[in-house]
Specification:
- Three copies of one chain form a homotrimer.
- By secondary structure, the first copy, chain A, is mainly beta.
- Chain A has a single domain, classed as Porin, CATH 2.40.160.10.
- The first copy, chain A, contains one helix and 20 strands.
- The two termini of chain A are 19 Å apart.
- Chains in contact: A-B, A-C, B-C.
- Chains A and B meet through strand 3, strand 4, strand 8 and strand 9 of A and strand 1, strand 2, strand 4, strand 5 and strand 20 of B.
């Protein structure tokens, strides 16, 4: 059965420090893949998975993907927390588990997969969209969207001259005698031609019929000048948390390929909550990282992120991350 | 080491609805692989595993099987709940994990494996013995037997002209100063010749020395007429729950191969509890499903199950399931 | 991607009994891979893993290892319990998960790996260092050292004419406003030439800045006479538990290759706690086991361990283990 399944993965570990300043009190923690930052890795979350694609003839294919996430500093698995019930369960495939069909009509998936919102969310991110370095990491409110709610049906179109689109519906499965079921919907449209790329995405989250619907919108764009690649992102969040009417958030950055094996990338992100009662809340931060390729599969990296939240009437809350690490794919 | 281990699996996901009526109140839930039905898949529980067989010479082989089960709609793993202590633990191989030897003498396994009762229990089931469509799914009391108690020694005979037999003993490992250990034993005898097959199986379950022994017996048979295959099953449960002396249960069904790639299967099941005090409890239901083969490894399916329990002195409790799905093996 | 990752594993299951006598009361439990002994296997803990090594040129390699442990009698996974917080989390790779580089300079690993103390701890152990038979199993206080604390950086030297050394530092990552972070450090030096081998190892464990540092030292040696191999081990533990100043522990044993496929091994271990207040505590035990090779990958084994702890002013606490089993690697 070896030919019908491919085993693949990524292990990403770093040594670093996270300094957090809350109410004027600083605390610096040193370690490997710090929980305070991203335990799963510095650039990407560590993972291993099984995937396969069977040719059914006539352009039709059956596809599946089963992917676990983990923290290499402890071996601890990514679990599944239902966005609808908040219950956490021991997952064997904490990132993806779906089966589906693809062909001329596009692709259909059933199970747990990234939302179309998630699929393009990082496309405008500087610092390699790294877990711990990307400028928006400690700044954007929208980072807490549901990236893989599960119980979902997904459809993506084929590419029409660089234009693609995708939609997903996740069933809450939590209907009761008095409330209707929750649901999460997500959409994206992406376009790429030559050096230019752009993506618009939208996601709504309703935990159950008794709750308000949070709305996430994001627009990303990039332009590759050759010497540098320009990156831009705009996001808007509505009705996600109490007392915040909406949040507008931004990020600007650039990738700078210094040599064929070494790239620098950095940027700046900011976000402002329009608060219903009280003063607005502002967050801003920058992140910069260098990525050195030992091979196509193995990279060394180093970077820094420095972010703060302006707390009305008090001193700023700050986060500062330094790390050096290695990422290996297989 | 690639040659000494085979990676295999099955991913089964559906979209469907489950309508349950309890005390006259109906509630319909829509979703992907609904927990109310079988989260692990519509036809079969989703799984992935590792297996291998080493030739030791002289017909002797060393064999192992390690198999995890999961729900593809969430990636959540099948865990292990001890039948003796009721404790649930995080399992990496929630379905099977055993090592053993096979040869002219038959096969011996040590670890966690299906009981011989389980091995043949579904052999007379209509609607492809599907998790959510089989007629007996919401009807038979015996469905709650322990299918993989673990801590077990297993033996199966070689085939004698179509006749095979198997036995298993599971150690409770829960002896205390005042009670002896629990145990689960199981046996089967199966016979197949030409179009005819039959299997008799028996299982006893004693949680600990302080508890009564529940007894499960089942007889399955099938006859393949070519145009259709006839399926029949009879089960008897004794001393499984308080106030029910014994339960007799039945199922009749047939498989109808419409074309070389499309098969319909359906049947009817019923069950009656002989209650010690009060009125007897009756359950009945039917299930029908269609299975279309896109290839040897990939199927589309659709089906329905409609079952009810006659509650003495009250309105019936009902369950109705509709689903369409895809099953892919690798 | 098949060429960049190797899937490997070991399944070890036995049938046996454990008799424990506490305060004069005996209780004997029978079963498969008994939790009272080692649930994971008789000789070794059952496991499966993924590993790979990528040649980066110039002698440099990128390496990774991801390894899960489990109990084949139940399929239950080895989890991760933080030595610093005591919190247990669901691990997908409960034994090892690291990534690193190796070359002329030696090897560096980041993540969770065996401590250098653990790497050589069993090198002087009789009865194949078996989980349930090794003489020191129920005797040595040092068995409760942290063998894979995680959050660690590891370095090992290349071999200098048979001499190697390794060091590891594990970050507590649990600094608070009032206490500094915990840490675990470990070192080893090992030497092997012809029939002679010896290893010295040292480990310190400090849960947090508010706790005392436990210290473990061990010296192992072996000499292969051909007819038999002599094994010796000495250990010292300091400040590990309250009221025990230090513990000295010893083990003597020998391996006896009876035929090319059958080996007997056995030995005797003892340990004495120097108690601060009250009488010293003494423990002693022997273990003997036979290992028969059905092939290079498959072994049958049988053995016994008989150990006791002399409790001052009371009857001895005793443990007696019998087991026969099979170990298969893939």
């Amino acid at each position: 059965a070896q030919s019908s399944v491919t085993l693949y993965g990524l292990v990403d570990a770093y040594v670093g420090s996270v300094k957090t300043t809350t109410a004027g009190q600083s605390l610096t923690t040193y370690g490997v893949n710090l929980p305070a930052a991203s335990g799963g890795g510095g650039l990407n979350t560590s993972r291993f998975g099984l995937k396969g694609s069977e040719d059914l003839g006539g352009g039709l294919k059956a596809n599946f993907l089963l992917e676990a996430g983990f923290d290499p500093s402890t071996g601890v698995a990514n679990n599944y927390t239902s966005p609808y019930t908040g219950t956490t369960s021991n997952a064997i495939f904490g990132r993806n588990s779906w089966v589906g069909l693809s062909g001329g009509f596009g692709e259909v998936k059933l199970g747990k997969m990234w939302t179309p919102f998630d699929e393009v969310k990082g496309s405008g991110a500087a610092a390699f969209d790294a877990n711990i370095f990307a400028p928006a990491t400690f700044v954007w409110r929208s980072n807490t969207y549901q990236d893989r709610p599960g119980n979902a049906v997904y459809y993506s179109t084929p590419s029409f001259a660089g234009l693609t689109a995708a939609a997903m519906y996740s069933f809450g499965e939590n209907k009761t005698a008095t409330t209707s079921a929750g649901k999460i919907t997500a959409f994206n449209v992406a376009y790429a031609t030559g050096p230019f790329a752009a993506a618009l995405s939208y996601q709504t989250e309703k935990v159950s019929g008794a709750f308000e619907t949070a709305k996430f919108l994001q627009f990303n764009t990039s332009y590759d000048l050759g010497v540098v690649k320009l990156l831009g992102a705009y996001g808007r969040v509505k009705d996600q948390v109490a007392n915040v009417d909406k949040t507008n958030e931004y990020q600007l950055g650039l990738d700078f390929p210094v040599t064929s094996t070494f790239t620098l990338s950095g940027g700046y992100a900011w976000s402002k909550d329009d608060v219903v009662a009280g003063s607005d809340i502002k967050r801003k931060g920058f992140g910069i990282a260098g990525l050195y390729a030992l091979s196509k599969r193995t990279n060394l990296y180093a970077g820094v992120n420095d972010s703060k939240t302006e707390v009305p009437g008090a001193s700023d809350d700050k986060t500062r991350v330094f790390a050096v690490g290695v990422r290996h794919t297989f």
